[in-house]
Amino acid sequence: MTNTTMSRPTQNSDQNTMTRTAVNPWDWSLKLGYNQAEVIEGATRHLTCAGQTSVDATGAPQHAGDMRAQIALALDNLEAVLADAGMTLGDVTKLGVYATDVDAALQNFDLLGMRFGPHRNTPPMTLLGVTRLALPGLMFEIEATATV
């Protein structure tokens, strides 16, 4: 068992220094793009974000049957919520992901890497397979916790 713990100070949007220390007793999750846990110190604001899905500004589901497009729009919507709170994907400290087809979601997880990668952020994440989401046709939902 290896302890791959690293500390990463970040300047948050409130101009305070927040320290995020990754806790990884094993390194296998790093290859999948997430940490097992993070210790966060020096935070001043905390955001709990409801699950974001592939819906337009009126709440109408989009991209029926297209997992990749649904993931992309759910991430767009997550970024919009974060931006309204003065935050970015770099401030996300935990993700919860729900998918009606886990295999199809995993085949498109490169989209998460493309969005979170530029922020050098690998927040702890849980992926759960579900039989359905709140609205018919939705296949992917992502919720986030962010801290600055």
In short:
Helices cover 24% and strands 31% of the residues.
Can you give a write-up of this model?
It is a single chain. With 148 residues, this protein is α+β, with helices and mostly antiparallel strands. The chain has one domain (44-147): 2-Layer Sandwich (60s Ribosomal Protein L30, Chain: A), CATH 3.30.1330.40. The protein has four helices and seven strands, in the order E-E-H-E-E-H-E-H-H-E-E. The chain has helices spanning 28-31, 67-84, 102-107, 110-116; strands at residues 6-11, 17-23, 37-41, 46-52, 92-99, 125-129, 140-147. The strands form two sheets. The protein has a four-stranded mixed beta sheet with strand order 4-7-5-6. Strands 1-2-3 form a three-stranded antiparallel beta sheet, with no helix packed on it. A hairpin with a 5-residue loop joins strand 1 (6-11) and strand 2. The radius of gyration is 16 Å and the shape is globular. The termini are far apart. The model has no long low-confidence stretch (mean pLDDT 90).
Oligomer: single chain
Distance between the termini: 31 Å
Largest sheet: 4 strands, mixed
The run of helices and strands is EEHEEHEHHEE
For CATH, the homologous superfamily is named as: RutC-like
Number of domains: 1
Instruction: Indicate the overall shape.
Output: globular
Strand order of the largest sheet: 4-7-5-6
Rg measurement, Å: 16 Å
User: Helical content, roughly?
Assistant: 10-25%
In the CATH hierarchy, what is the class? Alpha Beta
Low-confidence stretches: none
- Beta-strand proportion: 25-35%
Number of strands: 7
How many helices? The count is 4
